[in-house]
Amino acid sequence: MNQQGIKKKILIIDDEEGFANTVKLNLEQTGRYEVRTETKAKQGISAAKEFRPDLILLDVIMPDLDGGEVCSQLQSEPGLKDIPVVFLTAIVKEDEVGKKEGFIGGHPFISKPIGKEDLIRQIEKNMYKPR
Amino acid sequence: MPGSIKVLLVEDNPDIALLIQEFLKKAVGIDFQVKHCADFKTALEEAAKKNIDVILLDLNLPGSSGLETFSRMHGQVEGIPIIVLTGMDDEGLATRAVREGAQDYLAKSEVNADILVRSIKYAIERKRIEEELRRAHDGLELKVRERTAELVEANEHLKVEIEERRKAEEKLREAYTELKETQNQLIQAAKLEVVGRLASGVAHEVKNPLSVILQGVDYFVDTLQNKDENTESLLEYMRRSVYKADAIVRGLLDFSSISKLDMVPCDIVSVLESSLMLVKHELDKHHIRVRRDFKDGVGNVVMDKNRVEQVFVNLLMNAINVMDGGGEITLKVYGAGREEFTAGQDKKAGDVANPESGAVVVEIEDTGPGIPEKIMDKIFDPFFTTRRNSGGSGLGLSVVKNIIDLHEGKVSIKNKEGRGVKVTIMFPQKGGQV
């Protein structure tokens, strides 16, 4: 549980508007989160700078810039590099993960499609990790 | 006919000899030069000088008589005509002499100058013709022999050529078959590649909308007021549907991504054991016993350990799923020789692999209800499943076959006599231990 009354800020960078908005709906419905969505990868950095999220959900495959790129940009920003990043991926093979979660390049990932409960569990799990 | 004829007269009776010489002296137009010998031995010596045109030979001589006389003389004097002289009782003998090769016979009692001269002339002429004939015959025989030898040799060459052509034809046929096979493999690989690329695209495009639906369903579950039973069920079906669709997409990715293998020598038994570990929970849950029959020293097989493990897990799970209330799984591992490898071919279930030194065989048997014969030939088809209602994507066995094909192995699935199914997998061992 987070600190009383203060909502945690989540930034979603995903080019799929429908997904981003549905997730926003679900997360905000709990009353615990304030969510901002960003569908343009290139604007992810500025969005992060403005919003100062507690956790970033980052799609891997995006048309203009892929998630890995965005992530390394984030890492190189002094104010942003400590924000926990969780990758979202649609391309995961059965043998790579019999489970729906794992680690890629040092960052945790979760695979789509994912339900509300599982998503919130992942967010809570990774939010307080020291980077 | 030459002007002079040299005659060798072999006659022991001096009166007859004289008479004959008189006859010959009287001959008109021809000069007969007569040499007289009274016994066989002298005659032979004279004949050996070969300076004779004709021999008049009495068959009754001291030192030799009868046919023997003639034979001996005849044998010594090739090419010189012989006229035998006979007494009254010798006609039969004389006839035989003629058959043996004498040109003529003259009865001493009936001989006169004319007869004598004529006989000599004809004898010489006949002999000449005989000789010519003989030479021609010999020449012909020689030619025939040579020709035959040539033909035999030519025939041998032809046979060799035919054999070479046959071998070349066979090589050609083999090369053609290999070419076709390679072509097919290339086509297959190209298809797989396309499918692979398609699959990634499809996966991405499908999984995103699925995510929206899933999140949406969850939203409704949490926010809809006064949900009735139907609404609850509906939302639950929707959630399950999303997971099912996701499983299919993941299976498709899986199927199409298998193109490169990480091949190392492995002990098949240990791969089987680790597969069993992975499904241990399921085995216990369904009360399934496992029997092991592993032959020692079967040797290593070069394989992609993870993929093959995937194969075994898939097959074990298939077996577990059909033995709901309990049952038994029997696992066997043994080595097979080349003949068994090629003999155990099931045209429906797998491609022909190239057997080299031998193979390692893995058998997985269950005690379930078996597979209905009418679907037997579809079981390896992608997307064919009898368990779609319980979430089966139908990709399992096609992935299994794909992996085994990539190992140049062979898989066949048959119903056992009695209950259950037996899966037989053969992995080739190439050219001795690796």
Task: Describe the protein in words.
The complex is a heterodimer of chains A (131) and B (434). Chain A has 131 residues and is of the alpha/beta class. Chain A is built from four helices and six strands, in the order βαβαβαβββα. A six-stranded mixed beta sheet of chain A has the order 2-1-3-4-6-5, sandwiched between helices. In chain A, a hairpin with a 2-residue loop joins β5 (101-104) and β6. Mean pLDDT of chain A is 84; it is low at 94-98. The model of chain B is unreliable at 343-356 (pLDDT under 50). By secondary structure, chain B is an alpha/beta fold. In chain B, α1 (14-25) crosses α5 and α5 runs antiparallel to α6. Chain B has eleven helices and 14 strands. In chain B, the strands form four sheets. A five-stranded parallel beta sheet of chain B has the order 2-1-3-6-7, with helices on both faces. In chain B, strands 9-11-12-14-13 form a five-stranded mixed beta sheet. In chain B, β1 (4-10), α1 and β2 (31-37) form a beta-alpha-beta unit. Helix content of chain B is 54%, strand content 18%. Chains A and B meet through α1 and α4 of A and α5, α6 and α9 of B.
